[in-house]
């Protein structure tokens, strides 16, 4: 039984309430994009005077900017237009995947402002070396960000494995086991950029980060609201996944939910790096796809581009490989849909560009296997991710969300640095 | 981004606040079992005087009782002991399953006070006839409840199928499709008990209801808190399921989540009544289990008892059938655990008594197939449900929870009847 109302916090002191209200106001401006003091007051349920005082503090700390032009919103008189600042506090997102590292800096509005991606093979390279290289890429990204007057409020790593408590418990495709990724990255970044020595570093599963980016920034179909209940499937060398329920990540009891790549597609199938047999990854992961298509399993990102080219040209072997992978995807996804009843299944990573060839077979399995005729072929419930559904951007946005949740706390920490 | 604090409801009027606080106080007493005004005040954050006034109203309306004896709780001075009333408002739960109907009445404390179960075959019987029979069983149960001074505040049906908006969209094992179950049951009950003509009737999937009963009343292992993140699997002729996340049911976008019985165990397996092939139900449902064990697939409840007897006696065919079903259960559950990372998987329905023979094979598959070595054989994460994990009780408790969530609203409706 869930409370919808809570008793009126008798013990909250004035400073706590103000700190909380600063966040409410900043978030209101963030969510509206451009708005006025009056519209903010109407939205958050505070007086105009209280909102004005909070806005002054947020302007003074550099979280908001205002422009002289007036803006006529739906909620009353025109006023000075408020927006979140495009300089100052920013998020640093660092995706370390099997065959690339991608780093981005997003501003308070969540916009991707700087991006640096390097394609390289991180398999069987010592973790400290991979994280050191990622730190050097991050440092170069921060140099560009600094020229745009953006200062990182924190860094968030996005990693293809089970991440918990600052550690990668297991990332089979990287060959990592119990790697203290946050600490190693933080130390390596401080070595090349001493001013980042106190920067908070966090970490997140890459599919989780990409799913959040899809949730926050993805463009839903124009005719309906963006899905808030979906499964995100990230095709890479591994197949990652994330479950979003009512606009929140489902993390599970230990933080390891979403491992759709290791759901069994065929009990007697080939051995997987995770120790099981016949996992979805063995049929629909990048390595299997490229091998079956005859592209060469180790061709990496170039191989995926080649697969797309061959499929578009009607190459029979490429089409057969994609059809088979789509069928196995659909088989496993039918179980997920029966279990979770999501609005949509979003295909990201390498699948995004392969949707035209994967989706028909997957949709066929879903239509045949989802109970109660709830899945209709071609319903649009199976779809490619938007270009915003990206792990580095999601990771960076998590940092920004933390700032918005407590701007006063960030200002204090920033002042101390 | 989730708000942890909300602005102080400026528009809530006094009557709304009092109504809300009545529920807070009733719920506090309900959750504590036996408590004092002082302890309630400390728990809900209201003054002692406010709590006393609310308690008087709840005593006057018959929701609470007090005893003269003093009780020394942890939160201050001894006082008169308060408990929720064991007479008055009650919940009526009606489980209609494939081969039985079970009806119970629970009091405000959630205690199962009256229970009437009839074993009968509901397959291929017209839905109106099944619901009419259930109504007659419910009427007899209400007669017993009335002798204990319990009055139903509402009825909740628990049904083995996809339930939404008062209708059973599909219950393949009953052969039901688009049955207006709430309306048919309400009308049939009013025909035999005219005083129930205005009784609100709701409906719920049976596995969901059983999972809630397990959540609210189940006895967790003594050495740890009761699980609040688990998958409940209900073995019956069909295999139902429910996903509980942070103490709440995960319902899905259309309310149809939890259909673990139709997750595919073998893509090329036998045709299922749902239209797919190789669903878990085809290997681990009651019909398959009894058939494989040579007990006779239509032997129903008696057949399950016979299967247990044979397994306990070491009958090789019974043991082989249970081992196979356990393996298929474990195969599908490994996917669920990889996807949702629950604390526990709880086996209910006919599985409860069969756990000693199902669990070893299932646990073996889980240990081999859950990523990252997170599943350890014999960890206790796979376990039988408690005897409280029962759909009729869960359905009845849902009615009681509604009363506790708004006692003033119930008192008004009850007065109008």
Structural notes for this entry:
- Chains A, B: It comes from Streptomyces kanasensis.
- Chains A, B: This is Transcriptional regulator.
- Chains A, B: Pfam families: ROK (PF00480).
- Chains A, B: Belongs to the ROK (NagC/XylR) family.
- The structure is a homodimer of 417-residue chains.
- Chain A is α/β, with parallel strands linked by helices.
- Chain A folds into 3 domains: 14-76, Arc Repressor Mutant, subunit A (Orthogonal Bundle); 89-209 and 392-416, 2-Layer Sandwich (Nucleotidyltransferase, domain 5); 228-385, ATPase, nucleotide binding domain (Nucleotidyltransferase, domain 5), CATH 3.30.420.40.
- Chain A has 13 helices and 15 strands.
- Chain A has helices spanning 14-32, 37-44, 48-60, 127-147, 181-192, 206-217, 281-284, 286-293, 300-312, 316-340, 351-369, 391-405, 407-416; strands at residues 64-71, 79-84, 88-96, 100-106, 112-119, 150-159, 162-164, 167-171, 176-179, 201-205, 230-235, 239-245, 248-249, 344-349, 382-384.
- In chain A, the strands form 4 sheets. Chain A has a 5-stranded mixed beta sheet with strand order 5-4-3-6-10.
- In chain A, helix 8 (286-293) packs antiparallel against helix 10.
- The model of chain A is unreliable at 1-10 (pLDDT under 50).
- The interface between A and B is large, with 69 and 69 residues.
Helices and strands, with pairings:
The structure is a homodimer of 417-residue chains.
Chain A: H1 14-32, H2 37-44, H3 48-60, E1 64-71, E2 79-84, E3 88-96, E4 100-106, E5 112-119, H4 127-147, E6 150-159, E7 162-164, E8 167-171, E9 176-179, H5 181-192, E10 201-205, H6 206-217, E11 230-235, E12 239-245, E13 248-249, H7 281-284, H8 286-293, H9 300-312, H10 316-340, E14 344-349, H11 351-369, E15 382-384, H12 391-405, H13 407-416
Parallel strand pairs in A: 3-6, 6-10, 11-14, 14-15
Antiparallel strand pairs in A: 1-2, 3-4, 4-5, 7-8, 8-9, 11-12, 12-13
Helix pairs in contact in A: 1-2, 1-3, 2-3, 4-5, 6-12, 8-9, 8-10, 9-10, 10-11, 12-13
